[in-house]
Amino acid sequence: MKFRTELFVPPGDFKISHSDSVLMMGSCFVENISAKMSGAGFNIDANPFGAVYNPLSLSLNLNRLMDGKPYAGSELFRDKDLFHSFAHHSRFSGTNLSETLEKINLRLEHSSAFLRKSTLLVITFGTSFVYRLQETGAVISNCHKLPAHLFIHERMCLDDIVTEWNNLIGRLKKFAPGIKILFTVSPLRYLKDGFHENQLSKATLLLAIEKLIRETPDAYYFPSYEIVMDDLRDYRFYAEDLIHPSSQAIDYIWEKFSDAYFDEETQKIVREFESIERALNHKPFYPESEEYKSFIKKIEERKNKYSYICTQFKSK
After folding, report:
1. CA–CA separation, 7 vs 1, rounded Å?
2. Per residue in 165-211, pLDDT tens?
3. Beta bridge partners of 21
4. What distances in angstroms separate CA 69 from CA 49, 66, 93, one per listed residue?
5. pTM for the structure as a whole
6. SS3 letters for the chain?
7. What angle do CA 264, 267, 272 make, to 5 degrees?
8. pLDDT tens digit string along 9-41?
9. Strand 120-125 vs strand 139-140: parallel, antiparallel, or unpaired?
10. For strand 129-133 and strand 139-140, is the pairing parallel, antiparallel, or unpaired?
């Protein structure tokens, strides 16, 4: 007897290897998958503005990367003791204006250069709802817990998302020739918008992506949303808040992603990197023992075998 409907993800129309440069942007779901990619030795840059949830903010941020224009002090605001950017997650906020600007602009410079050489852009849409400043009408990425009356809350329509992203993709193809785009929809439910509204929001995103990939060469879709909603449709695959996927669910999605986009050789390297990562995270009872020193020597030999791929282990 079968007690669940497993979702089969067909092999991808392209493969990801360790020679690729992968920029990943979107909701906090990106943080989970990018951590897997990084731990597996891939050359990635993830969320240079922090977690961003809606398609319009993601488009604005990608255009800013292509512009390469540094942020000015006038683009930040102060609330209590912190300086914030409406385009960035609060992890970029700080108590000193010049230091906050430096942190934002250094990341902007790095990610702008990274995007230009990227071979793959992974985009995760979280919600089609956007927040606009009442005062200016500008769309923002993060409200930074400011009072709700300062913002207009509205849902983007299908045509607006498609038009915005068609324009963006046209520019992106010139900025980073040959880049592929892999769209996903975050399985996280945004229940603060309401249960029905969340469903309408996700449906809008799915329809927009479907239209975009039909009209865009080298644009694809990975069904992370469907894996959680239809395959893992059980609360045991959620974290304690019953909204975010559990670590077990993330591992399962990663397995599906790997099977679809990594060839046999890449998967072999991924397994070795993950094994090395686990070994490096091992906390010995007796770090001065000869047995542990021998163990570390063997790990170093395994690391050196893959030094041509990635230098991420050198600082550990």
Report:
1. 17
2. 999 999 999 999 999 999 999 999 988 889 999 999 999 999 999 99
3. 43
4. 14, 8, 19
5. 0.90
6. CCCCCCCCCCCCCCCCCCCCEEEEEECHHHHHHHHHHHHCCCEEEECECECCCCHHHHHHHHHHHHHCCCCCHHHEEEECCEEEECCCCHHHCECCHHHHHHHHHHHHHHHHHHHHHCCEEEEEECCCEEEEECCCCCEECCCCCCCHHHEEEEECCHHHHHHHHHHHHHHHHHHCCCCEEEEEECCCCCHHHCHHHHHHHHHHHHHHHHHHHHHCCCEEECCHHHHHHHHCCCHHHECCCCCCECHHHHHHHHHHHHHHHCCHHHHHHHHHHHHHHHHHCCCCCCCCCHHHHHHHHHHHHHHHHCCCCCCHHHHC
7. 130
8. 999 999 999 999 999 999 878 889 999 998 888
9. unpaired
10. antiparallel
Q: Which fold has domain 21-262?
A: Rossmann fold (3.40.50)
The structure tokens listed for 103 are 């942190």
- Residues 32 and 18: their CA atoms lie apart, in Å, by 19
Q: Which amino acid is at 41?
A: G
Burial of residue 40 (number of CB atoms within 10 Å: 0-12, 13-18, 19+): buried
